[in-house]
Amino acid sequence: MTAELLLWCVAALLATGAAGLLLHRRPMASAAVYAASLAITAAALTISARALLSPASLNGVISLPLGLPWLGTHFKVDALSAFFLLVINVGGAMASLFALGYGRHEETPGRVLPFFPAFLAGMNAVLLAADAFTFLFAWEFMSLSSWALVMAHHRRAGNAAAGYLYLLMASFGTLALLLAFGLLAGPSGAYDFAAIRQMPPAAAVSAVVLVLALIGAGSKAGLVPLHVWLPLAHPAAPTHVSALMSGVMTKVAVYGFVRIVFDLLGPPTWWWGAVVPFIGGITAVMGVLYALLQNDLKRLLAYSTVENIGIIFVGLGLALAFEANEMQAAAALAFTAALLHVFNHSLFKSLLFFGAGAVLSSTGERDMDRLGGLIHRMPRTAFAFLIGSAAISALPPFNGFVSEWLTFQAILLSPTLPQWLLKFLVPAVGALLALAAALAGACFVKAFGFTFLGRPRSDIAREAADTDRWSIAGMFILAALCLVAGILPGYFIDALGPVIEAMTGASLPRQEQLDWLTIVPIAQSRSSYNGLLVFFFIVLSASLAAEAIHRWASAAVRRSAPWDCGFPDSSPATQYSPGSFSQPIRRVFGSVLFRAHEEVQMPPPGDASPARLQVRLRDLPWDVIYAPMARAVAYCAERVNALQFLTIRGYLTLVFSALVVLLMVLAIWQ
Amino acid sequence: MMADLFVQFCEMLVVLGLAPLLAGYVRTLKARLVGRRGPPLLQPYRDLLRLIRKEVVLADSASWLFRAAPYIVFAATWVAAALVPTFATGLLFNYAADMIAIVALLASARFMLALAGLDVGTSFGGIGSSREMMIASLAEPAMVMVVFTLSLLAGSTQLSSIAAFMQGPGVGLRVSLAMALVALIMVAIAENARIPVDNPATHLELTMVHEAMIIEYSGRHLALIELASFVKLLLYISIIGCVFAPWGIAVAGQGLEAYLVGLAVYVVKLAVAGLLLALFETAIAKMRVFRYSDFLGSALMLGVLATLLLFVSRIA
User: Fold this and answer.
1) Inter-chain CB proximity A526 and B155 less than 8 Å
2) Is the peptide bond between B196 and the residue preceding it cis, with omega within 30 degrees of 0?
């Protein structure tokens, strides 16, 4: 029943897309399409939330006579897909709400309106799919519709290149997934998920499938070194789509990985639990370091998505390590941490992208070097963005802290793992994670501080106005959810129970009956956290301080020029700039990781021309992996190009020799 | 229940009351060590009183965040201090959050303060925020690694449980603990803006970090921020005290006498720690800014090594 209703939602979204295609020239088309998307995703959200809370009602596969004639298409909702459906439909509904206001600024609605609902439909369909063919078809549909959205403003500098790179990486990822499913299906070609589950592959095959799943899902999610397309493509799309791609589509990729590795692949081997957290830890630190060095607000947010995907994969990898050693309770904890971070990240990353979109629509700027002081002009956006920044920096009492805390608790359970490699690797991953969390704080001080605080760095920032009511509503709902998930995490952990149970065979103790809504993953003497009490005490002591100050202190306030150590300067150019903010961190980390190189060119004495500081950064994954690959492809293409200009005799000889070679191969084969 | 709440509340007041005294004590000791008479012991209280009586001079470009930040910074630091066992363990609030949450609460305070430094839009505030975040990006993971080491030994991230474990017979001398202690002290020095990382006594110097960040603050706002930084110093000393010198700490519910003994021992511990801090600060010179990463990087490495040793030495 659930799957059926959700399929109707997918169909309705596709119909909305078609309507958008036909009606995009009408003045009310944008509002109508986004309102319809909002209504449909809200319905899907309700359905999947109900499915997650009462998973017993989920059984039954729906088969439709579409697609391959001997296979058909199969759809099914289980606890895992219900959870991810909830995540993507929360994100989808909020993006539609935001777009009700933001979409009005769109110059070319015909390039956005048809694809936005189609993109949502594609993501929903991936989660509903219950056989490999349907899954891959929906996956590719999702990739292509999001590619169309990335290319919506294709004339803007850099966007076409971003779209090209995205298309390449998406095809490469789908190829890897195709091979993975091929290996899973085995020689008999059983592409149905239920059939795959029946016969787990041999050890060697499952190792290959793991690597292929890491490449396929990881390239979509943005694991280092497969992340290169992500910070180019996500910001290129219109902002509500950027929010969907960063906050939601990466979660579909995580779902793909979980579905293949945890569900279809059978019991894990211990070294999986070494590879996956290691890649996750590297991804987290590299992602946040890249993010810190960006001055473009949307690109900073996209790189920070890379970081958070790393954190999620650390949790998933730890769950694999524990499961391989039959430590089910610990596996449940690590898996809960990963899934909670999936949910949390979808909330605050959408919120932050909405904030960036509001800034973009009222100033036309993404470059923090030309923003500043917007807290005065856009107070409501600034407030919501501040909450998102605090949540993503894992600060209590917001939700980001809870999932990071759970991940740390999972790491602390790992000394009992018997394998030596894991004993060395897991503490190192813990240190990487702690480093990433601290750097994320610096990164979002930069993002918020240089966009919203200080004095305006350009005229356009000086005259900005706050955004419309719809966008504000979208941001405030997400900000409220960030707070609620942070102070009442017990309910959210309990809701994840059936998913964890299904994937790891154990689950955390029920949290909701505990005193004062504390969360206690293992035992109280070991660790506990009470977001509600922490929040309550912070509010209480802040108001106590405020009360005391107002009773006993002077209430006088005098406005004056900034003190600035006695030398105030009215030019906004004398402020700190985003580049100078990250300079210390660039010097500490960048000289090794990015081969950062600074060059100062001073004019000769007496010359009044300005001095120049040039910073060169090298992107190592690009230089080491992608650039040589591109050169190799170009070289081969150059050589093969000669085939285009043969005579007819030449072509006939070629065809004949190809035939002979193939027949010989066949003869030897048999 | 009411008695528990009362004891917890008293603990928070004790922390608040002792923090300026500790700062004044360290200042006086430092002055004596270099042969000056130094300010009276109670000078920090007088400074705070003077500050809250003065008017606030607010920059034209300051926003509501600048005015709200001191309250949030103070509240987050105070709540973090309430989570640390000072004279007694197992107080009502101790189980609300663990040591990782204490690190994160201090990170919240730092986050707000760094934003406030950027709010007015001057170069001084920016330089302070930027350097503070650079220091934090190394000090915070080092602190987390110390937490890992302690909690792997004690089997808990709760400070109360760790303190109870350290009092028990199962501790013994461990290399990991020594490394964790050194790393924790290095982090505490960096986080509290003490020499050799920062100099709390200078105001107009390009090497400063914390003072540059709060340079635009005045009046009651400055008083709150100063008080928060006093509390932070006390908090770090209390953490070191309850983990590495856990003697004499009362356990909740033992009654008034135990609490009083605990309080007396606690004051002695603060006095010893303050003396050591003053000696250390007098004996050492301030570092260049870009040497911080070496200093804190070694703290981080010590923390990682301490954790790694525990991982490796535990045979399942």
Assistant:
1) yes
2) yes
